[in-house]
């Protein structure tokens, strides 16, 4: 529970193991034998089955949103990605999951040793099934597909732009050195003029192209793109 990722994984494990612990004993109701629980047992089984399923889907969606913010908005997520915030999100997930599963508790009853939806509420059951299919299947699937596509595009663009920035700056430096060498050969080598040209060239590069200046070790100063990449890495490692 020391990281946000562990909080989401623990919540996902609880929602997945809940049917095994709670709903599995009620599956005996499908057998043609008398069981100690009746109508209430079917209602509890339906409630926990729907709650665990909805909680799992919402947890995966929330975790995907956290990943998207870590990749596409690392500067903002670094201050928002906390364990306290993750716990609040998980409590909200369980509240929504239980609230959305409550109608199935009232619409389920036991008929001939099996659990069915009450035929008197067929219209309401149909509406609830359509809402559940939309909110807990179609919409989360669309969100996951969209966010992972945006993350893949962001990672591709960041890597591509970094390479373009690096090679473009290197090419500019090589062209500048080649041009200076040709000028020296054409007009003859004079130390005083060479020193003046070097100082003038350095000052003009510092004022006009500050991002293309190099340090003594050949590295480039951190640009906005490089800072974004570093923040993205920090936010990604923070989630591990």
From TrEMBL:
Its main location: membrane. Keywords: G-protein coupled receptor, Membrane, Receptor, Transducer, Transmembrane, Transmembrane helix. This is G-protein coupled receptors family 1 profile domain-containing protein. It is a multi-pass membrane protein. It is found in: Membrane. Residues 1-240 form the G-protein coupled receptors family 1 profile domain. Gene3D superfamilies: Rhodopsin 7-helix transmembrane proteins (1.20.1070.10). GO terms for cellular component: plasma membrane. InterPro entries: GPCR_Rhodpsn (IPR000276), GPCR_Rhodpsn_7TM (IPR017452). It comes from the Eukaryota. One of its GO terms (molecular function) is G protein-coupled receptor activity. Belongs to the G-protein coupled receptor 1 family. The chain crosses the membrane at residues 86-106, 121-150.
């Amino acid at each position: 529970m020391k990281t946000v990722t562990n909080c989401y994984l623990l919540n996902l494990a609880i929602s997945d193991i809940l049917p095994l612990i709670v709903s599995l004993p009620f599956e005996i109701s499908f057998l043609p034998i008398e069981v100690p629980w009746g109508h209430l047992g079917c209602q509890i089984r339906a409630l926990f089955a729907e709650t665990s399923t909805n909680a799992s889907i919402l947890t995966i969606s929330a975790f995907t949103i956290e990943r998207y913010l870590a990749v596409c908005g690392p500067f903002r997520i670094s201050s928002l990605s906390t364990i306290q915030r993750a716990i609040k999100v998980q409590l909200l997930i369980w509240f929504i999951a239980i609230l959305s599963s409550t109608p199935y508790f009232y619409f389920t009853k036991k008929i001939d040793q099996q659990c069915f939806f009450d035929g008197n509420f067929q219209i309401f059951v149909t509406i609830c099934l359509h809402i559940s299919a939309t909110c807990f299947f179609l919409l989360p699937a669309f969100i996951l597909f969209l966010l992972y596509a945006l993350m893949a595009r962001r990672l591709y663009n960041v890597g591509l732009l970094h390479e373009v920035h690096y090679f473009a700056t290197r090419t500019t430096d090589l062209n500048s050195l080649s041009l200076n060498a040709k000028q020296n050969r054409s007009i003859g080598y004079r130390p005083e003029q060479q020193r003046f040209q070097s100082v003038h060239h350095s000052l003009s590069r510092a004022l006009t192209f500050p991002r293309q200046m190099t340090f003594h070790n050949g590295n480039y100063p951190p640009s906005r793109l490089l800072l974004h990449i570093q923040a993205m890495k920090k936010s990604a490692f923070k989630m591990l």
